[in-house]
């Protein structure tokens, strides 16, 4: 069976302060085609089964895939190039030097068939541990049972930046799909832990408590993941779940500021519309929203129940009373097109709605696909922008659109792959 795998680095939390960073160790092993490369890759394969088979250290991009037959990789839609075999395994790899400050798309092939496509970030400097920047702490995984979603339970972790004082109330940021932001998955994807610690060290964001919560299992989903029911449903239910069940449990261990000015919520894909909905329904609880590749589409549209899909979010922004929210959106032109809708067009719709109503927002529209790469590339900038001007002595701020954005026109679209006549 051909299977795309993530490169996993065991013990990253312990190795960050070691002489050789584990990503650097991996790249050096690949550069010399060392026997150690097989060991480094094999450690993680039983644990992760994602699409993003790439690891980045500086300008070194290591692409790796598991396949029964010889494999190739196409980078940025260029002709495929052969991957090298790793002796004694079914793994194939290639170490390349690519440009930073952008995203790169890649597709693996084996026996002439595509076996995985994704994007990878050419990370910015703040996505690497800065010398002298203290590192935060990640709690063990904990599990929470729900009554708002009867029969459902969900795993969560708490990441605390250096500078959080246990006796004082701290700002809060909630991240959906929390299992992708813990341990080594975070290193290979968003790098939230490293980025937030660096930005705290540089005094660009306040030290805060980050709640990393996974979608639940059980309940209405009949033993499977509750992700779409929780995340894609346009209602106040998920916000109530956070406020009535999740945060009271977090509050047993950490003091959290109650003001919306000190609270942010973030997510990618369905997690992004989930974050936007929670803030929309509860602007007195969350005022800062980070939305990556948001699924503002018809995934949970159920007309027989009178339930709208995510496409309604942009229309609500246009027509309903303005909320005091600050929103960073990002998406890419190669995002999803399917029966549920158009991710690029719906994100543009939402950006224009925020623009028309004078919201304090920023829209980053790139060329990427449905991947976290652009969000990871932008994270140092997006977090600093979202928390800009934060003053712990304040409990509220009336957000206003930046003059630079106010002077710009509405976003317009054009078709670039068809003739105009």
Structure commentary:
The protein has 421 residues and is of the alpha+beta class. It folds into two domains: 12-122, Sandwich (Immunoglobulin-like); 126-406, Alpha/Beta hydrolase fold, catalytic domain (Rossmann fold), CATH 3.40.50.1820. The protein has helices at 12-15, 22-31, 36-42, 183-188, 192-201, 227-232, 237-250, 270-281, 312-319, 343-356, 373-386, 403-406; strands at 54-57, 60-66, 71-75, 81-82, 84-85, 91-97, 103-110, 113-121, 137-138, 142-145, 152-160, 172-176, 209-213, 217-218, 263-268, 288-292, 326-332, 337-338, 341-342, 360-366. The strands form four sheets. Strands 9, 10, 11, 12, 13, 14, 15, 16, 17 and 20 form a ten-stranded mixed sheet that branches. The protein has a four-stranded antiparallel sheet with strand order 1-2-6-5, covered by helices on one side. Strands 4-3-7-8 form a four-stranded antiparallel sheet. β10 and β11 (152-160) form a beta hairpin. α5 runs parallel beside α11 and α9 (312-319) runs parallel beside α10 (343-356).
Q: How many strands in all?
A: 20
Radius of gyration, whole Å: 21 Å
Strand content: 15-25%
List low-confidence stretches: 1-18, 44-51
Number of domains: 2
Q: Output the CATH class name of the largest domain.
A: Alpha Beta
* Structural class by helix and strand composition: alpha+beta
Descriptive terms for the model:
421 residues, alpha+beta, Immunoglobulin-like, Rossmann fold, 2 domains, 10-stranded mixed beta sheet, 12 helices
Short recap of the structure:
By secondary structure, this protein is an alpha+beta fold.
